[in-house]
Amino acid sequence: MARVRLENITKRYGEETAVDGISLEVEDGEFVTFVGPSGCGKSTTMETVAGLTQPSEGDVYIGDDKVTKLAPKDRGVAMVFQNIALFPHMDVYENISFGLRLRKYDDEEVRRRVEQAADIVQLEGMLDRMPAEMSGGQQQRVGIARAIVRNPDVFLMDEPLANLDAKLRVHMRTELQRLHRELNATIIYVTHDQAEAMTMSNRIAVLNDGKLQQIAPPLVCYNEP
Ligand code: ADP
Ligand code: ADP
């Protein structure tokens, strides 16, 4: 795991400034959530950490390395998105192991990593299921397991629960908290769900109009309505 540092990140699209001079540091093992209104720059900021977007100005550091110019695959990050996009013709094992098999890890190592990841997201016993046979929450957990097997330094999660129904979302919050604890993972998380931000984060970063308005631990004890 590793810390992440954003140094004065700005991203412009033509005349529009999507991210406007954001600096922040996420500690090793910390869970930081970006919140703020739609269009405030949450996803774009995340994408600069992932390497999916090049900042117009500023630098991104992961651990001690400046990664601003590195390709996504060389950054030690794994992403989980709102749209999980499992391969429909592959079972759970094949979906989780796809990247490892491409990289030609030997079969035993692949199996070991897949079983460990499936265990963490509580999908043991479901490795031979097809995606169509699974609930949304189970599919989302396959998506998370696919990120875990990569053994990343940093998890980047952009609205990973947005497509789930309310009850599952609450359940998955607990699962993500457990994941954070068990893996001691550094997690940067984007959501517009206040309850998610309040219950899971070590600190919440509030973005507005491309700027970091404040970053602080959740202050109140959040009770489910
Ligand atoms: P959020 O994730 O908070 O909803 P985004 O980071 O997606 O916000 O977007 C921030 C701003 O940048 C928005 O105004 C959006 O329209 C703009 N933007 C994002 N991606 C692009 C792009 N590829 N091209 C042009 N404008 C973009
Ligand atoms: P590799 O990382 O060795 O290229 P993969 O098949 O795992 O092999 O990934 C293929 C491409 O997709 C790579 O560029 C990788 O960085 C990217 N990728 C796949 N899954 C993820 C993920 N969960 N998070 C981030 N990048 C991913």
Q: What is the compact description of this entry?
A:
Helix content is 32%, strand content 27%. With 225 residues, it is of the alpha/beta class. A hairpin with a 2-residue loop joins strand 9 and strand 10 (211-216).
Describe, in plain words, how this protein is organized in 3D.
By secondary structure, the chain is an alpha/beta fold. The protein is built from six helices and ten strands. It has helices at residues 42-50, 92-102, 107-120, 136-148, 166-183, 194-200; strands at 4-13, 16-26, 31-35, 57-62, 65-66, 77-81, 154-158, 186-190, 203-208, 211-216. The strands form two sheets. A six-stranded mixed beta sheet has the order 6-7-8-3-9-10, sandwiched between helices. It has a four-stranded antiparallel beta sheet with strand order 2-1-4-5, with helices on one face. α3 crosses α4 (136-148). The mean pLDDT is 91. The chain binds adenosine-5'-diphosphate (2 copies). One adenosine-5'-diphosphate (ADP) binds next to β6, α2 and α4.
Keywords, please?
225 residues, alpha/beta, six-stranded mixed beta sheet, four-stranded antiparallel beta sheet, 6 helices, 32% helix, globular, binds adenosine-5'-diphosphate
Present the secondary structure layout:
Elements: E1 4-13, E2 16-26, E3 31-35, H1 42-50, E4 57-62, E5 65-66, E6 77-81, H2 92-102, H3 107-120, H4 136-148, E7 154-158, H5 166-183, E8 186-190, H6 194-200, E9 203-208, E10 211-216
Parallel strand pairs: 3-8, 3-9, 6-7, 7-8
Antiparallel strand pairs: 1-2, 1-4, 4-5, 9-10
The structure holds adenosine-5'-diphosphate (2 copies).
